[in-house]
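WARN retry 2 of 3 for item q-0093 after timeout on previous attempt; input resubmitted unchanged.
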Amino acid sequence: MELKAKGSTSIKALLVEDIGVCRLVLSTFLLRLHCEVTLAMNGKEAVDLFLEGKKFDIVLFDKDMPVMTGPEVINSISSSIWHVLI
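OK item q-0093 returned
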């Protein structure tokens, strides 16, 4: 899901959070900073977004999520990026 604030900047943020209240608070904060926010409910959704070629300026991860944790996502994305670059 993508959220845009009125007069949003070109800052693209990915918010990966499984708890609804935390997702609401953090996305509201990012929107007030005029970010374009993409939401993912778990780590696998975040990895899928990167594999689809989506690019983000900032990524906020929950450390402990179902399906795939924040550190697992970072390792997976890093491996994918280096595989593409080599």
